[in-house]
């Protein structure tokens, strides 16, 4: 059931997953390529922030001093000459102490102390700076790692994917307007939204698509059993209408089986006086279900048959009247006028359109005409168990915005189940 549409949606989610995985792979590479850059920056900042180099600041000037000390012994002759000259000077001048001789020693001691203090301070600052830089790099990496675990799809990416998805919906019997609407909603939901990576991705995408489909096909639900119970004046009248061969008579029999299990009494009106063997077909079902059938001969007025059935129900206090009608194409205006007459005379509580789920978009066009002419109240979709596409029900709900009361899932009387939107959504996503 709905295999084609389910496969189309799965194909879309798989392509979307591949695209997001590709985007995430690219974003995950960026933090790794930036980490060495951050480490280089930290090393550079260590060097740039240190006010002085690790080598002693006066190492270069120390070597020339040693060279001078080595040269002093070589100039002994000149020193002796100077001493001789000092001996010739006056005693006061000779006794005067050499002031410049002591200054270099005092300066060297002070310089060595300053060097040690500065070196200790530099070492301390380097350790603190490295800790701060490492902490900053670690925090930056964590932030980048968090954001790299999520990705937001661009509008261009979504447009390319949704174009193919819209074509897939059209192939699954979803009409053009509904397909465009669904793709627009999906784009609105996913555009700019942060999409997680890993095992949650599949569930995330499925939930987003389910949400879009559920919102698009959800209409006000009506339960036929509840409607019958709430009506005070009996009987409750239901008119079945639709194209030829859709399964109106069989759907009447299946609904009767449901009503009887709820302890409602039922009477039928054989208002299909046009199709050959239509009355005989109803008689067979009525016999099996033990239901009274009101019938006229072929060619009789369908509205008159329905009128007699309603009066019989009132006389016998029967709860529900089910009216069969001749199948007709939406283009047959004469037969449409017959249906309008039944509606005017009987004023049914519900007008149910019965259609084959296999009919595809042609069923949608028929339903539009019937709704325009008769203002139908809802649908019964038959043979939905053999529908491999699944787009018909989606188009009906979104376009006509009338509820699907029941769906036929087999040939037995019990093979009619109440419909809700989850019936479709859970099978296609």
Descriptive overview:
The chain is α/β, with parallel strands linked by helices. It has three domains: 3-27 and 151-217, Up-down Bundle (Four Helix Bundle (Hemerythrin (Met), subunit A)); 31-150; 224-423, Rossmann fold, CATH 3.40.50.300. The protein is built from 16 helices and ten strands. An eight-stranded mixed sheet has the order 5-4-6-3-7-8-9-10, sandwiched between helices. The longest helix is centred in the N-terminal third of the chain and has 50 residues, at 99-148. The radius of gyration is 47 Å and the shape is elongated. The protein starts with a helix and ends with a helix.
Short overview:
The chain is α/β, with parallel strands linked by helices and 429 residues long. The chain has helices at residues 3-49, 59-74, 76-88, 91-95, 99-148, 155-171, 176-190, 200-217, 224-230, 248-261, 278-289, 302-316, 333-346, 361-374, 391-399, 421-428; strands spanning 150-152, 194-196, 236-241, 266-271, 292-294, 320-325, 350-356, 378-382, 404-408, 416-418.
């Amino acid at each position: 059931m709905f295999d084609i549409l389910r496969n189309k949606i799965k194909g879309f989610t798989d392509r979307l997953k591949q695209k997001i995985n590709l985007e995430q792979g690219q974003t995950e590479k960026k933090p790794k390529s930036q980490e060495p850059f951050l480490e280089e920056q930290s090393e550079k900042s260590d060097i740039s922030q240190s006010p002085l180099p690790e080598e002693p600041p006066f190492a270069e000037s120390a070597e020339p001093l040693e060279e001078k000390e080595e040269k002093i012994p070589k100039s002994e002759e000149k020193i002796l000459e100077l001493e001789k000259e000092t001996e010739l000077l006056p005693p006061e001048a000779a006794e005067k102490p050499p002031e410049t001789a002591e200054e270099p020693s005092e300066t060297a001691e002070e310089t060595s102390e300053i060097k040690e203090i500065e070196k200790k301070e530099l070492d301390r600052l380097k350790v603190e700076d490295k800790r701060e830089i490492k902490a900053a790099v670690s925090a930056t990496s964590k932030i980048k790692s968090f954001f790299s675990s999520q990705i937001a799809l661009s509008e261009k990416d979504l447009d390319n994917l949704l174009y193919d998805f819209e074509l897939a919906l059209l192939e699954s019997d979803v009409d053009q307007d509904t397909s465009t609407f669904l793709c627009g909603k999906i784009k609105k939901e996913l555009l700019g939204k942060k999409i997680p990576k890993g095992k949650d991705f599949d569930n995330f995408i499925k939930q987003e698509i389910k949400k879009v489909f559920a919102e698009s096909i959800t209409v006000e639900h009506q339960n036929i059993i509840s409607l019958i119970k709430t009506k005070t004046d009996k009987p409750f009248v239901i008119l079945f209408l639709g194209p030829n061969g859709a399964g109106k008579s069989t759907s009447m029999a299946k609904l009767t089986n449901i009503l009887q299990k709820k302890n409602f009494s039922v009477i039928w009106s054989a208002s299909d006086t046009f199709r050959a063997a239509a009355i005989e077909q109803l008689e067979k079902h009525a016999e099996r279900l033990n239901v009274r059938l009101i019938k006229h001969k072929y060619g009789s007025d369908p509205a008159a048959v329905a009128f007699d059935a309603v009066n019989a129900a009132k006389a016998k206090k029967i709860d529900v009247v089910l009216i069969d009608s001749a199948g007709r194409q939406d283009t047959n205006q004469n037969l449409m006028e017959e249906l309008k007459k039944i509606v005017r005379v009987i004023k049914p509580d519900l007008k149910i359109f019965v259609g084959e789920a296999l009919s595809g978009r042609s069923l949608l066009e028929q339903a539009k005409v019937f709704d325009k002419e008769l203002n139908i109240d809802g649908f019964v979709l038959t043979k939905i168990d053999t529908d491999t596409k699944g787009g018909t029900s989606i188009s009906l709900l979104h376009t006509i915005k009338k509820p699907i009361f029941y769906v036929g899932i087999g040939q037995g009387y019990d093979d009619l189940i109440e419909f809700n939107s989850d019936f479709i959504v859970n099978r296609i996503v």
